[in-house]
Amino acid sequence: MPVLSATHLSKSFGAQDVFAGVSCAVPHGGRVVLVGPNGTGKTTLLRILGGLEEPTTGQVHRMRGLTIGFLPQQADEQLDSERPVFDEMLTVFADLQTQAAELRRLEELMADPHQRDAAL
């Protein structure tokens, strides 16, 4: 059973059809790549799949409890930081980075025969 599926999606802005007839499924543990020229609706499709935008036609089904993260290509005014977007994105892993640094410190202590017992 897919964690996300979409059937017969289309998106139009007024008379402009961005895409039509798009169907897809993402299996559990699957990885998906979306490639195409600029202006073909890749970002719009991802916004629809993520629930940030509604399709003109079609349906999206998401597995119950599914969490979808979306990092836009362009940072808007809501990003109140001097850091680059990539560095800002990594801030959610600050606790894990601190734990990793502590593990590296303990590894170094355990490598020293005189400090091994105390480090353990």
| Name of the CATH architecture of the largest domain | 3-Layer(aba) Sandwich
Helix content: 25-40%
Gross morphology:
elongated
Tally of domains: 2
Low-confidence stretches: none
The number of helical segments is 4
Proportion of residues in β-strands:
25-35%
The CATH topology of the largest domain is what?
Answer: Rossmann fold
Number of strands: 3
By secondary-structure content and strand pairing, the structural class works out as: alpha+beta
Biggest sheet features: 3 strands, antiparallel
Strand order of the largest sheet: 2-1-3
Q: N- to C-terminal separation?
A: 45 Å
How would you portray this structure in words?
The protein has 120 residues and is of the alpha+beta class. The protein folds into two domains: 70 residues, P-loop containing nucleotide triphosphate hydrolases (Rossmann fold, 3-Layer(aba) Sandwich); 49 residues, no CATH class. The chain has a three-stranded antiparallel beta sheet with strand order 2-1-3, covered by helices on one side. Strand 1 and strand 2 form a beta hairpin. The longest helix is centred in the last third of the chain and has 18 residues. The radius of gyration is 22 Å and the shape is elongated. It starts with a strand and ends with a helix.
What are the key terms here?
120 residues; alpha+beta; Rossmann fold; 2 domains; 3-stranded antiparallel beta sheet; 4 helices; elongated
In short:
This protein is α+β, with helices and mostly antiparallel strands and 120 residues long. The protein has helices spanning 42-49, 85-90, 94-111, 116-119; strands at residues 2-13, 16-27, 57-62. The mean pLDDT is 90.
